[in-house]
Amino acid sequence: SSDVCSSDLGTIVSVNTSTANTLLIVEPEEGEELLIPLHDDFLVDYSVKDRYLLLNLPEGILELNA
Fold this sequence. Notes:
This protein has strands at 11-16, 23-27, 34-37, 43-47, 52-55. By secondary structure, the protein is an all-beta fold. The chain has a 3-stranded antiparallel beta sheet, with no helix packed on it. The protein has a two-stranded antiparallel ribbon with strand order 4-5. The protein is globular.
């Protein structure tokens, strides 16, 4: 069995590169914007053509937005 939880977090509306860590600003269908650090260790797959980004986020990282 796999512990992978896959979910669509929303649309990346902006990328903030003014901090030490690049931050993705993600707008979910409902709720507040999410700030997600973009780190090489989190990147699983992406496609510019198909416009998706697949990340493996550490447990608890989305709770930092609360």
